[in-house]
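Hi,

Apologies if this is the wrong queue. I'm a grad student, and the batch job for GB1/RHD3-type G domain-containing protein from Mesocestoides corti produced an output file that my downstream script rejects. I'm not sure whether the problem is my script or the file. Here is the sequence I used:
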Amino acid sequence: MQSEIARSVQVVSTGEGDKGTSLQLVESALSEVLLNPVIRNKKVVVVSVVGTFRKGKSFLLDFFLRYMYSKDKTNWLGDPNEPLTGFHWRGGADRDTTGIHMWSEVFLVKLSSGEEVAVIFLDTQGSFDCRANMKQSATIFALSTMLSSKEIFNIKDNLQEDYLQHLQFFTEYGRIALEAGYAQTPFQHLEFLVRDWAFAYELPYGTKGGMELLNKRLQVDEHTPKENALLRTHIKSCFADLQCYLMPHPGLIVAGSPTFNGRLADIEPTFIEQLKDYVPHVLSPSNLSVKTINGQPVTCCELLEYFRAYMKIFQSDELPEPVSMYAATAEVNNLNACNRSRNLYVQEMNEVCGPRQPFVSPRMVDAAHIRSQQKALEEFKKAPKMGGEDLAADFEKRLIQEIDTLYENYKMSNQNKNAVEHFKTPMVLLITIFCFYVITGLLDTVGLSAVSNVLLFPFWSLLLALGTWMFVRFTGNGPEIGEHIDRIAQGIADKVSIIYSTFHYYHWHFRTME
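Support response: The file is valid. Your script probably expects a header line. Output copied below for reference.
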């Protein structure tokens, strides 16, 4: 059953001004979903449905939701008289969904590998309706394509040339990425879902007929116009996986009744049979793919950063060129690698001198810094990154600067944990000098001047050490000498502590014997 509080939330809104083309990121709604502590650091699977308006995208997504909520995957369609709920949909000729909507409840699914991932569903505004111009339609389609790990291109009747041409802008983005020297395809899984397929006598419903149709449409021979041949080559090179599925017509009640509410009882049995096959084909754990960019898995919180970066590009005055989209992707890709490496440094340092650790020797902090910085830089260098060596070098410098700042904070925090450390050496030396002064005076009084003269050597040596320590600390010269004096003072303090502990033990022991 669907959660009572789960709902469709708009994460990209459309403007309705004179131009009617403005798009805004609804960051509060997006953050509420993606930064949920339960899922924010989990790898994400993004399933979206795109296509022309009034072709049943939201209707299809609601069957996806019914499958995800069902406890019994063998009978997930449930009661034939139950209305279909989830993303808002309705019949008619005018558009219903605007912008991009996300289902507020994220589904945790265990993949065949045993890893638990977060599955997110996106519903998009239909392309090319009368109230949206080319930029708005292309932007929404592009955002969905760039952010999805599995995208369903919902089309009607047949896989025609104009549908392939709608993808040309996005294949240009892929072409730029490939020419930049990266082996990974820029987009992952695209599936053409051909609705209302009327030629089942030629090609059967389902994946078999769909793949035959797709291979036929993407075939290139000597008679194919050069422009069309290039288009097909680019589409193949830009998607890691291309599939096609043929669906029958759902029936006249679905298409023409204003009171239709999604009940299975009103849908043609042939459509329901294919639905039983198609939805698990898309959503079973073995068929889900984690969202990756340049081969690097994306988490929910990182997906938020990609939303922000892409929206900044698409909000520019001109329809963005593929190179600008690639640059935005490369920058966020390097930023995420930088953040992961910095977090590794913090994790390593926290084990030695973090907020929950007691005061440690400054030498331990220095050693931990060198070791942790090396690990962080190695992590950054081995992470797959887009944008070339120059961009990676800029972010590596940024990482080093951030680490240096963190290192200074760790040193200051460590010293603040024990304020006495600032005064330990002079206090120990002064007390020891005072003790020698008193002892030599008493020895002179009782006539043991020879012994007193012997003790004058450590007295003056300690006095000289105190003066040297103060000179080093105030001038900053000869820090190694200051550290040596610190060790001498620490040794004196340790010996006094041992003597005191021994005396205290025997004193307590004799008192208990009495």
